Amino acid sequence: MESAEVARRFLTFFEERGHTVVPSASLVAEDPTLLLVPAGMVPFKPYFLGQRTPPAPRMASAQKCVRTPDIDEVGKTTRHATFFQMLGNFSIGDYFKEGAIPFAWELLTRSEADGGFGFPEDRLWVTVYLDDDEAADIWHRKVGVPEERIQRRGLADNYWHMGVPGPGGPCSEIYYDRGPEYGREGGPVADEDRYLEVWNLVFMQEQLSKVRSKTDFDIAGPLPAKNIDTGMGLERMAAILQGVDNIYETDTLWKILDRAAELTGSTYGREHRADVSLRVIADHVRAGTMMVADGIIPANEGRGYVLRRILRRAIRNLRLLGGQDGGLMHELTAVAIGAMGEQYTELTRTAANIHAVIDAEEERFLQTLRTGTAIFDQAVEETRRSGRTTLAGAQAFTLHDTYGFPIDLTLEMAAEQGLQVDEEGFRRLLEEQRQRAKADAAAKKTGNLDVSVLGQLLDLAGGRVDFTGYHDVSGEA
Ligand code: ATP
Ligand code: MG
Ligand code: MG
Ligand code: MG
Questions:
Q1: Which residue has the least CA distance to atom 24 on ligand 1?
Q2: Strands (E), 320-419
Q3: How many helices (H) and strands (E) are present in the chain, helices listed first?
Q4: How many whole angstroms from its chain centre is CA 400?
Q5: Is the C-beta atom of 249 inside 6 A of ligand 1?
Q6: pLDDT at 445
Q7: Cβ neighbours of residue 209 under 8 Å, at least 6 residues apart?
Q8: How far does residue 73's CA lie from ligand 2's centre (Å)?
Q9: pLDDT(451) > 60
Q10: CA-based angle 322:328:331, to the nearest 5?
Q11: Does the beta carbon of 62 lie inside 6 Å of ligand 1?
Q12: Less Cβ around it within 10 Å: N or C end of the chain?
């Protein structure tokens, strides 16, 4: 079953059950608390909160999503992409658990000939929140799932919120057993590689006032009504239905992966590190293409910075595979536009613009690499000659400050050379520079001096920046 058909089938099923199909919102979140849309519920948030009247009490959508925090997982797990599509049915004060659970079961287990996904019942496992006897009861009594395939989990897995103040609630997840060749038995609690999470049913009932972490938040009170928000991963469904090992091998992503292998002269399935690179390239090229199509352009802050990181990471991985030439991104973007164009006609319509933006970013980054690489190589030379294994913070800082090498790139390239980087030293120098800039700005009363990217990031992240995700391309993490 093609990816586009997975979406069609989902939407048709819910349309036939009284849901109004709503088109995907842009990846650029209207919601000021978010940079990018990470879940299908985002456009529905004002309805859950009772701030706006929904066009219909029952709705369904296929929403474009980007999850930046998952970037480290891409290519390494079988199931995480930065860009993916979330299929969802929503009830705003209409049906609750007793409606959502049987709907989900019916769609998954109904035969393909009959408009369902045809999953064998005994392959499905479900989880519910610790004390959610109501949901467990519906799964067992109403749907008929044997008790041993209903597992209970705590806040980290079975309570969903946006990570920012807003609606939230306990959830119930559905997992597909891929079989013993994928891992240990014992259900999702034992092994999430073997038991693939495909669908999350969220029972939106509370309003969160403060969110400190996934498991640490304050509940202000109940929402005006009890709501349903569900999210099914289209790519994960496609992987199961297409009988492939992971989401990067499903129809759309595979086209990009395959072309990347061809362009770099590499063979997929031969060596782990190269496979990870190819999967990262496929994911990132598609994510970049979708982001540009929604009007994002590479920049040093905000969404533009996320896009820049994603595009540059794709380019870096192409180079790791031996793809040194310019123009590779152009070829791959064209494949991504072709692969996604059926579902998203705006891609074909705006192809020229997408290419212009991505080509320019490739050129800019290759230029940075050309000038900076010689300096980097020299720094590696010096480090080795002096018998050290750590690149000095000052060297990383010079690369950043004078040659435009972002710290993530330095970390990544150093790791490829088996070297570490004195990140602490780097950050100290950066902070000193920031303070100087601040003082200058205050002195000049312009308040408008160019603050470094990292500085802005530090501000965004409330002083905490996590760079660990960039070691991965080296295969080190
Ligand atoms: P996981 O535990 O596998 O990271 P999750 O619990 O974070 O997934 P949810 O927030 O429940 O995911 O999102 C709903 C659904 O969206 C998931 O059940 C899954 O099918 C899909 N999904 C979530 N994150 C990704 C991703 N990074 N790439 C592809 N699909 C995803
Ligand atoms: Mg996750
Ligand atoms: Mg999960
Ligand atoms: Mg989940």
A1: 80
A2: 390-391
A3: 16, 11
A4: 27
A5: no
A6: 57
A7: 165, 218, 219, 220
A8: 9
A9: no
A10: 140
A11: no
A12: C
Q: DSSP state, 65?
A: E
Q: Which helix (H) or strand (E) holds 202?
A: strand 195-211
Ligand 1 binding pocket includes 161 (Cβ within 6 Å): no
Closest-CA residue, ligand 1 atom 12, reads 200
122 is in which domain, residue-wise?
Answer: 3-241
User: Is a pLDDT exceeding 80 seen at residue 457?
Assistant: no
Query: Do 271 and 364 belong together in one domain?
Result: yes
Q: Which residue did the predictor score with more confidence, 369 or 339?
A: 339
Indicate if ligand 1 lies below 6 Å from the C-beta of 94.
Answer: no
- Whether the ipTM is more than 0.90: the answer is yes
Look up residue 19 and give its DSSP letter: P
If asked whether residues 225 and 263 sit together in one domain, one would say: no
pTM: 0.88
Asked if residue 383 belongs to a domain, the reply is no
Q: For residue 176, how far is the Cα from the chain centroid? A: 21
Q: Where would I find the beta strands (DSSP E) of 238-381?
A: none
* Cβ-contact 224, 50 below 8 angstroms: yes
Atom of ligand 1 nearest to the CA of 199: 18
- Is the CB of residue 256 less than 8 Å from the CB of residue 280? no
Is residue 84 within 6 Å of ligand 1 at its C-beta?
Answer: yes
Confidence of residue 456 (pLDDT cuts 50, 70, 90): very low
| CA 82 to ligand 1: nearest atom | 27
- Do 362 and 393 lie in one domain? The reply is no
Residue ending a domain, among 207, 241, 275, is: 241
pLDDT at 212: 95
In short, whether 233's Cβ falls inside 6 Å of ligand 1 is: yes
Residue nearest to atom 2 of ligand 1 (CA): 197
Q: For position 440, what pLDDT does the model report?
A: 84
> Which of 48, 153, 72 is CA-nearest to residue 473?
72
